[in-house]
């Protein structure tokens, strides 16, 4: 019986897709994780479905979240961003 190697599978995924998914806003680049550590997944599960800021804060991290907040972004912008992120990474978010 063949043994499944988690580390090898992770390395293949990250080599194929990279560790981060990037988006641009007003000539500034932001990065979201392609894969969530379990601790982040737990944080995300505790956020209310309607808490857009809470979701973004966890995904972006403190430094990026502060930079992101300096931009004028609509709810529709965030919805489009999360939809694109979900399609690209297979991690649909913000669907309540």
Automatic annotation (TrEMBL):
<protein>
    <submittedName>
        <fullName>Uncharacterized protein</fullName>
    </submittedName>
</protein>
């Amino acid at each position: 019986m063949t043994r499944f190697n988690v580390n090898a599978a992770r390395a293949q995924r990250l080599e194929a897709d990279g560790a981060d998914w990037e988006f641009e806003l007003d000539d500034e680049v932001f990065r979201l994780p392609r894969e969530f550590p379990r601790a982040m997944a737990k944080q995300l599960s505790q956020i209310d479905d309607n808490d857009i800021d809470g979701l973004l804060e966890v995904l972006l991290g403190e430094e990026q979240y502060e930079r992101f907040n300096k931009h004028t972004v609509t709810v529709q912008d965030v919805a489009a961003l999360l939809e694109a992120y979900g399609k690209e990474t297979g991690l649909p978010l913000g669907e309540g």
